[in-house]
């Protein structure tokens, strides 16, 4: 079985730290132990080993999301959670439906385990809403898993309650499972929530990465039925075995302050969204559906239609010091993803420079 190339991650790592105006960053800037209210003495190099996945982390997550602890699988970030879910839910020859535009890791992990992936398209003209009739047709044709992101990456659109209800009904009608990558969901106003509920067809994955500025901890989790969690645990014995103790200890020490960190970051996102919206009102050459939350928006650039948007973005880095993500990385050429979880004045200057480049797309 061939392992698919994760083109976006190759690109993101190659451009990490590049550009003075980093509108290509995918999460909030990293926070410090001081920001979290954690003392160095609380960082531990070992933790008790248990037959269950890290019980302390599982119980903290369960309390936060109001789900049973045996429905929580602690993982090393959302990617790890998605990989475990992909192998447990699918495998060679299993048909999987994924959204497009997409975050490449989601269809990628299913391809990596040999599943047959096909796509349904979310469209800007429809506010990036789910095409439920198209999803139902895919399930009728034999798909066993449906994959979505909430907030949608790259557009920032949320899954509305009627979208979730329609997904639940479709999945139940066809005996399918819905994987929801919720890594951006906590940007929505509190209380925190999830698509997962006991007895439902949903598996949800997330982490402390995007909203909380704790990507380097690599602490995440999946929410799933106890049976799926047990199978994930069995698979994980072959993968990472246990969570890294220093990361888990920091996460647990910081747990009581997560809401305060998220609130600060939501304020930054809201302020910068107003800046981006004002800039967009002055541009007659771009199309978008404003995000419902988070720190990212997807802009369609008609002037880039039929052109190499990856090369154009590379010139933008070199000539203007501005980073954005080319739409090709999300299966949507001719657009760009802009992220705005950065200092407001940096965002203003970066958008100004981006505007100059867009005036002469070349």
Task: Characterise this structure.
The protein has helices at residues 7-14, 33-36, 55-65, 77-89, 105-112, 132-140, 161-174, 226-236, 245-254, 258-281, 309-320, 344-359; strands spanning 21-22, 72-75, 95-100, 116-121, 145-149, 177-181, 202-207, 220-223, 296-300, 322-323, 325-326, 335-339. Strand 11 and strand 12 form a beta hairpin. The chain contains twelve helices and twelve strands. It is globular, with a radius of gyration of 20 Å. The mean pLDDT is 96. Helix 4 (77-89) crosses helix 8 (226-236) and helix 10 packs parallel to helix 12 (344-359). The strands form three sheets. A seven-stranded mixed β-sheet has the order 2-8-7-6-5-3-4, sandwiched between helices. It folds into two domains: 7-30 and 259-359, Aspartate Aminotransferase, domain 1, CATH 3.90.1150; 44-257, Type I PLP-dependent aspartate aminotransferase-like (Major domain) (Aspartate Aminotransferase, domain 2), CATH 3.40.640.10. The longest helix is centred in the last third of the chain and has 24 residues, at 258-281. The protein is an alpha/beta fold.
